[in-house]
């Protein structure tokens, strides 16, 4: 890809992600902050609970990567030792973005500096598009000022009538 083609790809995938996020919010209430969430790495399932702690929706996900605001850094899930091997393997497809775009950062197997959270969302948008995902979930850290994890939602099912 030329630089112009890459920027057009980035812009179009970001616009696509915004639309997907609106659809997830409208259909499943994601992002309304009413309840809690839980991610089980062993099953690749992301669960959303309502304010009464009833399971509302369950999603099959692929871990994309994590962003640290403290260090303005990114790490792909496919090379992150804290991610279980089966999940790293599912995320490994994202390395193909390096060949597709010609941009080396898609193949970096270590933490690297990025501009800010906006760039983390741009990387996520390209990953969501490439994976054919329905959207993503930005999972906050359980540690204060810890990294957030971006999860591509591959399928989702409402569990409440």
From TrEMBL:
Q: Which domain of life is it from?
A: Bacteria
List the Pfam families: DUF6882 (PF21813)
Family annotation (InterPro entries)? DUF6882
Its name, as the record gives it, is: Uncharacterized protein
